[in-house]
Design brief:
The complex is a heterodimer of chains A (307) and B (318). Chain A is mainly alpha-helical. Chain A contains 11 helices and 4 strands. In chain A, the strands form 2 sheets. A two-stranded antiparallel sheet of chain A has the order 1-2. Chain B contains 10 helices and 6 strands; from the N terminus they run αββαββαααααααββα. The chains are: A mainly alpha (307), B mainly alpha (318). The interface between A and B is large, with 48 and 48 residues.
Chain lengths: 307, 318
Amino acid sequence: MRHARPNAPLVLGVLLLVGLLLFLALPWFVPVADPAGQTLTAEVAGTLQLPPYGGGQAGFLLGSDPAGRDMLARLVYGARTSLLLAMAITAIRVVVAVPLGLVAGWYRGLTGRLSEGASAMFGALPTLILVLFLVQSVKVIASVEGMTWLHMSWPYLYVGLVAVAGVPRLVEHVRRLTADLAVRSHIEAAVAVGAPPVRIMARHIWPLLRGDVFVAATAEIGWVLMLLGQMAIFGVYLGGTIIIAQDGVPPIIVERDAELGAMLGVNRHLLRRYPEIPLYPAAALGLIVACFQLLADGLRLRWRSRG
Amino acid sequence: MPALLKLWVRRLVLFLVVTLALVYLVHLPAGVAQEWLPDQSKWQVFYSPAQYWRQTSQFWTELASGGIVYHHSDRHHIPFMEVLHDSWQNTGRIFAMAVVAGGFLGVVVGSLAALRSRVFGFLSLLLAIVGLSLPDFLVVMGGQVATLWTSRTFGFRLWPILADPQTPGGWVLPVAVLSLAPLGYMARLTAAALDEILREDYIRTARSKGLAEFRVIFGHAFRNALPRLYGGLPSLLNVVLSSVPVVEQLTTWPGLGKWLVPAGGYADFGTGSPIWIGVSPAMIAMSGMTLVAMFMVLDGVAQSLVLVYSRKPEGVRA
């Protein structure tokens, strides 16, 4: 008798998810500092010091950033923001891609070819490069004085552009699944008794498709978070920077908002002097990405083994 | 072969369409213009569609004549084609090395995992998790912090923090990081393909005849697993090529990744025609076109392999 192998990706993914949820809920159980609150001087080992403070110094468990803000608090609130951002982008992709994919897969013909063509065009460049070109080109224009409306709507535009770049691939995924399902006997029977296409898609195809879409959406959250981190490496992130100037000290540029991508992108140049400052947000982002990738992988394995 | 020809014609058309879209997209910042307002004593920054079209037309002219120039802030000018020539070769080298080394090791580990070895099975799973689930930037930064730590604690570096194509040690970190994804991907794909094939009747027959497990796997099963491995190549190339710019940026590898982000802006030297100092939209468009071409060719080769190996032999009925 052949024993079923343990689904390691699912087990690891669930463990990471539980850890992530506990981490995100930390402010509800223990007092966590204000992520924007600054400590500009603190007594460390009998001497007055300027930030950044190391782990355990001046009451900061994981240390502080160069502006004297609590790293743990920024990681918790940053993870919440990044996750919310990734989920919003994924939700837009799914809401747009699923109906389009269903229609393209059902009607085939021109809509099917359009879906294939758009997917091939958007897939001709690695996603990072495509999104980077899209976002940075629009960002430069948004910084022009007369483009106030573009500047004001920049966060929404950023979310929209990142979302749009992933839509064609997802449409193509749903189209292929729909086209495969459309030739099944119970679907052909529904066509034969005269059921309208919308009803067939909603009542017969979607129930068979939703598991796959759920897995794809789970993986997509991971990909989006990875993309946010990669774009941050190129200096493209949500939220601006602030310059902190003090007498006798060179000015410091820090990210304004607690968001993991921004925390990574702005501080990555500090890797040699203060490795933990960029490494913490990178590790947090990396572990969340791994969590969603493993969950998607594990769910795919589980459902495949069940047939 | 009509199918192969069709594939490459479609790729050529796709390349032309994507290139056009890319050039007009990355030139959008070139339309940002400024004008001195003497009555208000300040510069007014505005968007000029006329300047955008002028810069885009100039790009096509300069591309045809090979005259795109990289203007340094110190008024030092270099023909960009020379810079690009070195950059794409550096990117190509690191990419090829990562795909070949990672892919080969992945196939070996995956095959050994299929031998029902617990150690290699675990290794294959671990590599798949690390290589495919952990983001490239975390692995690079982890590698840099690890070498910083050994340097500060024990006085030796595992590898240089920043990459350098001139020294062998300078290749270690970028190649190792880029190899992880193909290693994990191929290990998983090979193990899964072999696992399925090893349950076939002809494998059972080979085993019952007393053939060594090693010969069963590499002499019989592996040959039939090849089409599935080729089928995974397009996704593999996409994953690695996506990571290349990030790894180059973090390790300062002198490849195409350096030319993908606009830097600097227009400067007027009193000639009446301002020039872009730093990384201009024209340079980004050229680098982007080179990356698209690289990806199209490599992906096309991978797709061709899939097409050739997925065909049924002549005389076999469906």
